[in-house]
Design goal:
Low-confidence stretches of chain A: none
Oligomer: homotetramer
Protein name (chains A, B, C, D): L-ribulose-5-phosphate 4-epimerase
Family (chains A, B, C, D): Belongs to the aldolase class II family. AraD/FucA subfamily.
Organism (chains A, B, C, D): Leminorella grimontii
Order of helices and strands of chain A: HEEEEHEHHHHEEHH
Number of strands of chain A: 7
Structural class of chain A: alpha+beta
Largest interface: A-B, 31 and 35 residues
GO cellular component, one term (chains A, B, C, D): cytosol
Number of helices of chain A: 8
Cofactor (chains A, B, C, D): Zn(2+)
Strand order of the largest sheet of chain A: 4-3-2-1-5-7-6
Radius of gyration of chain A: 17 Å
Strand content of chain A: 5-15%
């Protein structure tokens, strides 16, 4: 089981440079094995070009290394905080992708402006508040997870599968590692097109609520009709 | 005949990622066999990497599947509305390409600013009005086709071979599937350069009417002299 | 001789998609054989993917086809006007590259803002005036050449190796076809960085004259010391 | 020793086009052998496609060629000035990369807006003052080095591993040639995202000082915990 998950996490990590989301080692993907209460995550600061499946690190829910020869990603505590809070989340990704990071630096949510956004995110992609000095100075990565949770509030995390952390960058998640990367790609793409749209027309309106409902639900609602049924696939 | 059309539609769909117009499965191309009153279209939500010619779906003019193992694109009703209204249209493409979608989100037509535009589009590329709540809540995809038709009005659809649907994205068409994709590429390119041009000089003027006439007609008018005659090709 | 020139013109044309300057067939390169008073130019509307050396068209200085099975580029008359006026020019290129075309649509010269520009262009890259209705309606391509000449005035065309034609796009040239493409790449790159620079700081200053002199002359002046001497190469 | 350094400098130079930092020959990397007081640098104006390890040029600290068949980069005197002043610097790179050059042309520092920046640069990436006429007209490249040194003042050059030279472009450095290129890639990336961020929100705030401290120190401080320890690597 863990072997299969290591393979999935490795592949999801390798998808990051393939989708243009990372420069050097600036990104990491993890996934949870909720039966064993273990998380598989990218090792810290290892280059994508030379990384192998067996380099993935397995940690327990407190971040102790169970398996692996490397230190886990320095952002491990952020991932674990989210897994502990949200049982719906199966995979998490963090990158410094250009456009989503620009919105994080701008300190603004990535606004819901169109159906591209509404196909995956129900409402704006929020931007967290600034961490305080004491939140940064001790347990920084854990506090990053906490401020994401505070920002999400009571929403279903699979309906808002990502946020931008103020002055830092995007975190995205999904039902598994592959889905998390998918949502990170969507976030980068809408971050790009929203910037251009706002530059073209600074007085544009957010997406009509009923259009957002329609698109989100035709993909994720009970009567979803986008794509193929499991039988057809 | 349908076999040849399937091949064309398949190839036109595969051209979308090649031209950078799609992320994941966010695009679809169709073509009509007007003798048989049948339309060949991409299956819904199938990845480009694994899609095969035989996965193309054949539907009748009411959208019933005639041939194929998959559900047709969720946008099929939009395509069919356009084919029913405009006998000149042989192929249709829908994408969420970055820059054209940004104009759709901005709620503005892509303005005719230069000869790149005028070589393919006679006048601005219009942006539709917003769909109403009831138009979205029932027969959404059909109503998307209807609002495109309402926007085009009485123009020759091959002289305005595309529009942007408000808060959604671009639809383009042409005399066949290949031509439709060609026009979608042009739309994305002019959407990009028009944004940059408006950013450089917010008070720029639209293209002079006589220059637009010249460029459109040297490619599409009765005395066209761009390219090769059929004999030379 | 013409065979060698055909090869050079073919290769220079093939460099256009390689440098990201063209979409589809939107570009053409020519070169002159000044001893024979003949110009080799790309055929009109032929795809780069299938184009061969032998498809290059040879025309005389009035545009009559001397050799070749295709029609020459529809812009041939523009190229010939420039060759007739400027004996220093050995090659010419026309594209619709994104950023240079955006400046053409904005109706503004590409300003000399830095040393990247000054290494190749001495002063702003001018934008032509609009062609009049009658200049467009008859002998359009010839008049495009004339308005470029009018814009250059008395400057050395190798010191201003390109202009943008209003509402159309860039033309560049050089001592041969290869050099012309090189200058077209530079123009596109400075068009991009100048847009970004003006967006960052709308009140920036043009390059200091003495810095422009230094950079232009260390590459093109009598005491040039950039690169290798002929002996070293 | 010099052979190994030539190999490193060659590879670091070849990384420039791979990371999209250079067009044509517009970039150069050097490294110092501080025991022998020799610097290995790219030859001037040689194309990356055909450059070989043995084309690297070795110069002494006054710029006299010790080894090599080519002229050294025209920017050699700038590199040497920095090596003479800062014993901490092991490698230097100069490019005209698009976004960093745009900030140089805008005449503004690249502001510290987020953790991507703070992971490598402690504080803004400064922009030099303009060189005076006399600084440009004699010993231009040496004076470029001097104005970089004047701009850095008393900071640790490995804490501010790069600047933009006004109206020219970026210079970056590091503990060796590879590290210098790494910092040049970071500078280009933050130059890009900072432009977008400022365009999204012109009134954004610089990064909180304690967040900058945290990120810079978790990678570069005494208790650094990003990446692997030497033993693990």
């Amino acid at each position: 089981m863990i072997t299969a998950l290591k393979q999935q996490v490795f592949e999801a990590n390798m998808d990051l440079p393939r989708h243009g989301l990372v420069t050097f080692t600036w990104g990491n993907v993890s996934a949870i094995d909720s039966e064993r209460n273990a998380v598989v995550i990218k090792p810290s600061g290892v280059a994508y070009e030379t990384m192998r499946v067996e380099d993935m690190v397995v940690v327990d829910m407190e971040g102790r290394v169970i398996e692996g020869n490397f230190r886990p990603s320095s952002d491990t505590a952020t991932h674990l905080a989210l897994y502990r809070r949200y049982p719906q989340i199966g995979g998490i990704v963090h990158t410094h992708s250009t456009y989503a990071t620009a919105w994080a630096q701008a300190g603004l949510p990535i606004p819901a402006l169109g159906t591209t956004h509404a196909d995956y995110f129900y409402g704006d992609i929020p931007c967290t508040r600034a961490l305080t000095r004491s939140e940064v100075e001790s347990d920084y990565e854990l506090n990053t997870g906490r401020v994401i949770i505070e920002t999400l509030g009571e929403v279903n995390p699979l309906h808002t599968p990502g946020v931008v952390v103020y002055q830092h960058g995007p975190f995205a998640w999904g039902k598994d590692a592959h889905d998390a990367v998918h949502n990170a790609v969507v976030m980068e793409e809408v971050a790009h097109m929203d910037w251009v749209a706002c530059s073209i027309n600074p007085r544009l309106r957010p997406i009509d609520g009923y259009l957002m409902d329609k698109h989100f639900n035709r993909k994720h609602g009970p009567g979803a009709y986008y794509g193929q049924t499991d039988k057809q696939r």
